[in-house]
Design a protein that fits this description.
Elements lengths: L5 H54 L3 H15 L2 E5 L12 E5 L4 E5 L19 E8 L7 E7 L11 E11 L8 H16 L6 H5 L4 E6 L6 E8 L10 E7 L1 H51 L14 H70 L4 H32 L7 E5 H11 L1 H6 L3 E6 L6 E5 H18 L5 E9 L3 E9 L32 H11 L5 E4 L3 E9 L8
Parallel strand pairs: 11-13
Antiparallel strand pairs: 1-9, 2-3, 2-6, 4-5, 4-6, 7-8, 8-9, 10-12, 13-14, 14-16, 15-16
């Protein structure tokens, strides 16, 4: 760190500020924490007493409900509690008890708070559990038993003068979630009550107004302090009122404060080390933006407009960094846009040149394809106009009709191809038999096959028909073009083979192979282009319109087919695949 640098200044200021705040927190804990705890504890007890008073009025007169309500209050709030009559005398309500169902009667076993210890209270009992109790009956009907000992079974010896009761637990209320010795604290309640009663007259007016009387009492033997709260339970006329006397130990907070003070003594060096380390880290973090901005400014000075590290804070450093980065990005973006615009311009020029070349080729091809039949039609028409012999007249008219049909076919193919090129064709997909379609198309070419003395051989996987999912009309158009092409280029007295087989991926592969001259290797990929013909078939007797394979290509691509052409030992084979449908519904 530099002597007068920002990092050193931030480190000193941050360390001093954190240590000052830590000292204030520790001082506040030592001076005010105990008082805060006492106030919070007393406020919580007062709220709980108000809720108890509401429930008390609802069950007043029912001794069993009162005992259960009182025991639940003491367990939940860890207090020693008594209900007082108008003379501030403790009412005979025992909050802790166990009820046993013996063979012939229900026995209540009150748990005395005086003279009992925690060890004499049964622990972990549950309703329906079997229990054995030794004690003495306190009533004539032998239904209330003063307990002396609790046993899990009847194997222990019975002392003289005691009776043994055995039965199932039907109901119980025992000290739970209480302090380490709740019975001792409950036994102190009478002593605290006697001392409080000596000055009770001074609190009567406040009690009658429904207010809670707060005071404190210290156990003379242990020195533990207790909070004492008294509140009226009923709104009954004077002479029948009852009061609630609550005593809660304040010992835990004193122990917590003492422990906290010792803890701070041991923790102070660790906190000091952490403060210094964190202050140093914080100082470096805060000063880091200045170093980043300095480096960014140096790069901008060298006309380096690439991305710079960004400071993401929302202060002035962050704003300055964002402005500098924005400037850098704008300059860099402008350069990239100019570069992209130049590349796009070059691409547009190339595309325009390619489109112009395609246009010229299309015009040339159309002109070429139409020029010959038009010339023929014109020649024969002129012959008819000059009055040729009658025997030639019919032949001339037939040739004119034939050339007209050829031009019409060319125009129809061009219209069909244009639909595919502008994506105006929508497939009507259905399930149909590829086997039947191949046979149907093959039958339509029987005359051409016989005229060239060609034999047709159809083979397929299995004896059952092969079904595909495709547009039947378009696939028929594909087969017609491929059959026509195969017959046109087949050698006379040869075999034309059609194979249908299943391939991987649930597809049907159809192969149409003819015996004849092969296609030059450089022409195999170009035969699918419009108006492209290999030189050997440029004559008008065997050449088609030059658009058939281009149409086939578009149809198969719409079906997602794998198609192609390849030279074989006999001649040339054209193949394509279609998705198989074995009868399932395909979307």
């Amino acid at each position: 760190m530099r002597k007068h640098g920002v990092v050193l200044k931030l480190f000193v200021i941050t360390s001093a500020l954190i240590l000052f705040i830590f000292s204030l927190v520790m001082l506040a804990e030592g001076l005010f924490f105990e008082r805060f705890y006492r106030m919070s504890r007393v406020d919580e007890l007062e709220s709980a007493m108000s809720r108890f008073a509401e429930q008390y009025n609802e069950v007043s007169g029912n001794e069993r409900e009162l005992s259960s309500l009182l025991g639940s209050f003491m367990n939940k709030n860890d207090t020693s509690t008594a209900v007082l009559n108008k003379s501030f005398t403790r009412a005979n309500i025992n909050p802790y008890y166990v009820k046993l169902q013996s063979a012939d009667k229900l026995i209540t076993v009150p748990i005395p708070t005086a003279g009992a210890t925690v060890n004499t209270i049964p622990r972990g009992i549950s309703q329906g559990e079997r229990m054995v109790i030794d004690g003495m009956f306190m009533d004539e009907k032998d239904t209330i038993l003063h307990p002396v000992a609790f046993w899990p079974d009847d194997t222990a010896p019975l002392e003289d003068g005691l009776v043994r009761v055995e039965g199932n637990v039907t109901e119980y209320m025992l000290p739970e979630q209480r302090s380490f010795n709740p019975l001792y604290q409950d036994a102190l309640l009478d002593e605290a009550l006697r001392e409080w009663t000596t000055g009770a007259e001074a609190y009567l007016s406040r009690l009658h107004e429904g207010k809670t009387v707060r005071s404190e009492w210290k156990d003379p033997w242990s020195g533990v302090e207790y909070a004492v709260l008294v509140q009226s339970l009923t709104d009954e006329p004077e002479g029948s009122e009852h009061y609630m006397f609550v005593m809660a130990s304040l010992q835990p907070v004193g122990e917590a404060v003492e422990t906290l003070k010792k803890y701070v003594i041991y923790l102070a060096p660790v906190i000091l080390a952490l403060v210094l380390a964190l202050s140093l880290i914080y100082s470096r973090i805060v000063s880091r933006p200045l170093l980043t901005l300095n480096r960014s400014a140096a790069r901008l000075a060298k006309l380096d407009f690439a991305d710079h590290p960004e400071i993401r804070s929302k202060d002035e450093f962050g704003e300055l960094s964002r402005n500098m980065n924005e400037l850098s990005r704008n300059l860099d973006s402008a350069l990239k846009e100019l570069r992209l615009a130049n590349e796009q311009l070059q691409e547009d020029v190339r595309e325009k040149q390619r489109s112009e070349q395609l246009r010229k080729e299309l015009v040339a091809n159309i002109s070429h394809e139409l020029k010959t039949p038009l010339g023929i039609v014109k020649g024969f028409a002129e012959g008819l106009q000059d009055g040729v012999a009658d025997d030639k007249r019919e032949r001339y008219l037939g040739l004119i009709v034939n050339e007209t049909d050829r031009m019409n076919a060319l125009i129809m193919d061009m219209l069909e191809l244009s639909k595919f090129e502008v994506k105006a064709v929508r497939l009507q997909v259905e399930r149909f038999s590829m086997t039947d379609l191949v046979r149907q198309v093959a039958n339509s070419f029987m005359q051409q096959l016989e005229s060239k003395h060609l034999r047709l051989r159809v083979r397929q996987d299995g004896e059952e028909d092969l079904y595909v999912q495709a547009d039947r009309r378009r696939i028929e158009q594909v087969l017609l073009n491929l059959f026509s092409n195969a017959i046109r280029h087949a050698t006379e007295d040869s075999v034309l083979t059609i194979d249908m087989e299943r391939t991987e991926g649930s597809a049907i592969r159809t192969v149409i192979e003819n015996a004849g001259p092969p296609i030059a290797k450089e022409d195999l990929d170009r035969i699918w282009d419009q108006f492209y013909r290999a030189e050997r078939s440029r004559d008008r007797k065997s050449g088609g319109t030059g658009l058939g394979l281009a149409i086939v290509k578009h149809i198969l691509e719409l079906h997602g087919s794998n198609y192609g052409a390849a030279n074989t030992e006999q001649g040339v084979a054209f193949s394509f695949t279609l998705q198989e449908n074995k009868g399932e519904n395909l979307s």
